[in-house]
Design goal:
Elements lengths: L1 H23 L5 E11 L18 E4 L2 E9 L9 E9 L2 E7 L11 E4 L3 E9 L10 E9 L8 E3 L16 E5 L4 E7 L6 E6 L5 E7 L5 E9 L2 E8 L1 E2 L3 H11 L5 E2 L2 E7 L11 E5 L6 E9 L5 E8 L4 H7 L6 E10 L2 E12 L6 E9 L5 E10 L5 E11 L6 E2 L8 E4 L11 E7 L5 E9 L1
Antiparallel strand pairs: 1-30, 2-3, 3-4, 4-5, 6-7, 7-8, 8-9, 10-11, 11-12, 12-13, 14-15, 15-18, 16-17, 18-19, 20-21, 21-22, 22-23, 24-25, 25-26, 26-27, 28-29, 29-30
């Protein structure tokens, strides 16, 4: 009898484990709650569109509150600094402007982050020169908003920097926060030497300078993250074509004297931004030898402090370069994820590969989304090919931690081509609500969607 009971209990345990495993492998079910246009932004014609700061957050969620930072273009102010920031909130009546800058003094979008549940910080880079000045001096500043009294005007804060860096309208800045600790990490680039200067805001609201990071080449569009005092930055090399033969060929085809290339991806970290400078950057990936292209997409930190890095990778930039210099290469694109632990690459994952003569999906853009249970998902837009060779662009979601699952389509009316999420590094908490902010079919209209992940 006892042996029978033991066998019965063992059978129940095995069944329970199978059920548990089955539940863990059950794909998430996305249900679109909201999908809408917010506003159309007139092109500023200054080299920076409304999503130009794709490495830094523009959307945050605090409980039921949703906020976005959106630029407005002036028709009367000449470039380059011819836009102003506007802080938007989504209410029961739709989107409305809470606050806006009095002047059009910025060239780039102004990143937005959340501290705790009641404080917003908006990073601006205001020109100090007469309207129409190009590549002139700018002053990094931060506007602080209290959500309990959101109608009150913001408080202006001035970050501190080491030495006298030269900041201009091309800031290539990044910002990340530890929302629970109420600490902030801010980067601005020096226009002359390409260094990323570091400023840190304590939980008490005090800014202090913390040196700079010197990348092997000028590196821009950074993703920044901060957790338990440790700071992280992911940035892409951004320089004029360095190979003379390739530069000459491109000028023949395009007529331009310059062509900026994005081929080398770098990461740097500090174990404690309050007491230690950033370690020397490490090179995560490179397609420099074959004139390729890399787009840095996102950065996420797990509870153990490991950094997950997300990016797109193309071995060769385009058909012109391939046909002339690399005829044996395929025009393909892959979505890559690299895990870095204490400055050392721990794991590499190719999540998908598509393109020329490949049946798999061709990825266009992606972001991370974390759930309250610690699982991590990738939200991506890709072109999918059917057996009858009809292509379809979809936005999908796929779990990658604790293990990889199949992707599931998010049933949007318009897939997002470029988008932001309400991310932890911007102060938003992990959630079963997925917030998307970006562009769809019309590149000048900013859109929003809220998706329940069941």
């Amino acid at each position: 009898m006892k042996q029978t009971m033991n066998r019965f209990c063992a059978t129940l345990l095995i069944l329970a484990l199978h059920v548990s495993a089955g539940l863990a492998d059950t794909p998430v079910r996305p249900a679109v709650q909201v999908e809408e246009d917010i506003v159309r932004v007139e092109p500023p014609n200054n080299g920076a569109g409304p999503l130009w700061c794709y490495g830094a957050p523009l959307l945050v969620r605090s409980g039921e509150w949703i906020f976005a930072s959106i630029v407005e273009t002036s028709q009367d102010v000449p470039p380059l600094c011819n836009t102003r920031w506007r802080l938007w909130e989504r209410t029961e009546k739709g989107w409305m402007v809470l606050h806006q800058d009095e002047r059009f003094r910025n060239r780039e979008p102004c990143p937005l982050v959340l501290l705790g549940e009641e404080t917003l910080l908006l990073s601006a880079n205001s020109s100090t020169q007469p309207p129409g000045t190009q590549y002139g001096p700018c002053e990094p500043n931060v506007f602080r908003f209290g959500l309990a009294k959101r109608s009150f005007p913001p408080v202006l804060e001035l970050p501190r920097w080491e030495g006298t860096p030269r900041f201009t309208d091309h800031s290539y800045r990044g910002i990340g926060v530890d929302g629970e600790a109420r600490e902030t990490l801010l980067f601005h680039i020096d226009a002359e030497n390409g260094r990323q200067y570091v400023s840190v805001r304590s939980k008490d609201g005090e800014w202090s300078s913390h040196g700079f990071i010197e990348f092997p080449i000028r590196s821009c569009y950074p993703q920044a993250a901060l957790k338990n005092g440790a700071g992280h930055i992911l940035a892409i090399g951004d320089i004029v074509e360095p190979t003379g033969e390739w530069r000459t060929f491109k000028k023949e085809k395009t007529g331009r004297d310059w062509d900026y290339v994005f081929r080398r991806l770098f990461y740097a970290w500090s174990p404690d931004v309050h007491t230690q400078l950033f370690h020397a950057p490490i090179e995560i990936d490179s397609v420099d030898a074959t004139a390729g292209h890399i787009t840095n997409l996102d950065l996420w930190l797990d509870e153990d402090g490991r950094a997950f890095l997300l990016y797109l990778k193309q071995p060769v930039q385009n058909a012109l370069m391939r046909d002339r210099f690399f005829p044996d290469l395929k025009l393909i694109r892959s979505l890559e994820c690299v895990v870095v632990n204490h400055g050392q690459v721990e794991k590499r994952m190719t999540l998908m590969t598509g393109g020329e003569s490949l049946p798999g999906p061709d990825p266009h853009y992606a972001r991370f989304h974390a759930m309250p249970d610690g699982s991590l998902y990738v939200v991506f837009t890709a072109t999918f090919f059917s057996p009858d060779m009809l292509d379809k662009v979809e936005t999908r979601i796929q779990r990658i931690v604790p293990h990889i699952s199949d992707s599931v389509t998010i049933p949007l009316h318009q897939p997002f081509r470029v988008f932001f999420t309400a991310a932890e590094r911007g102060g938003s908490k992990p959630s079963r609500l997925l917030d998307l902010f970006g562009i769809g079919e019309d590149g000048d209209t900013l859109r929003y969607a809220c998706v329940q992940l069941e």
